[in-house]
Amino acid sequence: MVDLGLEVSERDGWAVVAVAGEVDVATAPRLREQLIELVNHGRHHIVVDLSDVEFLDSTGLGVLVGALKRVRTNNGELALVCSESRILKVFEITGLTKVFPMHRTLADVSALD
Amino acid sequence: MGEVVELEIPARPEYLALARLLVAAAVAGDPVFPEDRLDDLRLAVSEACTNAMEAQARAASTRAGTNGNRRANEPIQIRCELDMEQVEVEVIDHGDGFDPDALAEHPPVTDPNRLDYERGLGIPLIRILTDEVDFKPSPNGTRVRMVLYASTAGLPRPS
Predict the structure, then answer these.
(1) Among the partner residues B14, B116, B128, nearest to A93 by beta-carbon distance
(2) pLDDT tens digit sequence for B98-141
(3) Which residues in chain B have Cβ-Cβ distances shorter than 8 Å to A94?
(4) How many CB atoms lie within 10 A of CB A86?
(5) What is the residue range of A88's domain?
């Protein structure tokens, strides 16, 4: 069994999902389910904290893109926390840094009103 | 001729992490490969193996009974050849032959309509991460050949 850590917490009005481990086609479905569950419970402002992610592939990117679509449909937002260069690079080369609000640390995410 | 490492992994998603680990380990001993090129290699191999598994699953789903199951259960073959200046990796599946040029075009990622598509990022990633790539589809499967140079210093990188 491949491990994927998922911890949900609250911060300044955002639902924060801290992800740990490797996100690929084996583990991405669990992240997708977690994000859909939050949206279905009316949480439309979500931060996905990728600080402890060691690997992320196109399946993981796809899950985040799908979740962004869901929250924006509800006038929400999905922000990412990422500082590790190997993970940042995947967003940079696909152009997705222009699509997601990206922050280096959780403390950089502004509080919601 | 460089050093050749050949391996096979079961065509199941939970073995992708193993494929990444083994391919990176085959190259990691070489001092000319910097860590960021190893990251590129891990990701490119993972994307190619994911595509290979999906191609076999598609081939299996279009065939009835044991013939389909046999296709789905074929292992994915990975062949690495390490040279002084580059690593060449081939990923070989037993699907129906995969033509990347036949894929649907998606809008650019900055187009809000692109958010309707969760898929379609894997092949572009492979093309960006590798220095050479070619897909050889046949009715018995696809052979993806990827080459990464040890150093891409001085080469233009997409922004």
Answers:
(1) B128
(2) 887 777 778 887 887 777 777 888 999 999 999 999 999 998 89
(3) 109, 121, 124-125, 128
(4) 17
(5) 4-108
